[in-house]
From TrEMBL:
Keywords: Cell wall biogenesis/degradation, Hydrolase. It comes from the Bacteria. The keyword RNA-binding does not apply. SUPFAM superfamilies: Zn-dependent exopeptidases. Pfam families: Amidase_3, SH3_3. Signal peptide: none annotated. InterPro entries: MurNAc-LAA_cat, SH3-like_bac-type. Residues 57-168 form the MurNAc-LAA domain. The keyword Hydrolase applies. It comes from Yanshouia hominis. This is N-acetylmuramoyl-L-alanine amidase.
Length: 245
């Protein structure tokens, strides 16, 4: 399973013109994104509101991730003059550029004005140029513009879904709508173990095995596969070997 470092803004001092803060709303987006990640088989580590950017960068660099995704909202140098979504990437990162382009393309579908969505290279944002893994920082509209701030506030679910759709495209995974998590029992033929796989494919790496009769938590379902967690380890299993009734 691919694994990302998820970094919603910790900038509580950046206030929305409509009320609330950048930290509050970006963490709300991340909260809403998490079920999509579990359902689609993307593992994640998430920063914490009490952290500062440097701590998140160090934590990201200390782990092994396939992508660092930072979530922010923007402010204009001249108050209320700019709008739109800016996706930042490191100029020399092939995978970072690809991730940024996928995110921008998908945000153009939901942004009120798709012409105001762009990708931008940067060497001055720490969460892009100081992390070891490919990284993108999404400035999800301008919180000092009334229309943009209201667009974020009124579209938290749509924004989270668009982020998830972009990540599954980037990792070449099927997009799965999240379910209310529920428990299911492993019911294999002849009482054998069930392989927990890295991706929803019999050709993918087996992360381990789940014994007959064990209980897993189900987060998402495909026609032949289920995104599950067993003893803290997430992966995919063949859904016909789960008792889903």
């Amino acid at each position: 399973m691919p694994k990302i470092y998820l970094g919603p803004s910790t900038q509580e001092q950046n206030l929305y013109v409509t009320g609330g803060s950048e930290e509050y709303y970006m963490n709300l987006v991340a909260d809403t994104l998490e079920p999509y990640l579990r359902a689609s088989g993307i593992r994640f580590t998430r920063n914490r509101p009490e952290m500062i950017a440097g701590q998140a960068i160090r934590e990201s660099n200390a782990g092994s991730y396939n992508l660092h995704l930072a979530l922010h909202s923007n402010a204009a140098p001249v108050y209320e003059t700019l709008r739109g979504v800016d996706v930042y990437h490191f100029p020399g990162s092939v995978n970072g550029i690809r991730a940024a382009e996928i995110l921008a393309d998908n945000f153009k579908v939901i942004c009120p004005d798709p012409n105001l969505v762009d990708t931008r290279p940067t060497t001055s944002l720490g969460e892009v140029d100081r992390v070891r893994t490919p990284a993108v920082l999404v400035e999800i509209a301008y919180h000092d513009n009334v229309d943009d701030a209201n667009w974020i506030i009124n579209n938290i679910g749509l924004i989270a879904r668009t982020l998830a759709l972009s990540l599954t495209e980037y990792f070449d995974l099927p997009f799965v709508e999240p379910l209310q998590p529920f428990a299911a029992e492993v019911d294999t033929e002849a009482g054998g173990n069930l392989n927990l796989r890295d991706r929803p494919s019999t050709r993918s790496t087996a992360l381990g095995s789940i014994p007959y009769g064990a209980t897993v938590t189900v987060y998402g379902l495909l026609p032949e596969w289920a995104a599950v967690e067993y003893r803290g380890l997430g992966g995919s299993v063949r859904r016909n070997y789960l008792d889903l009734d």
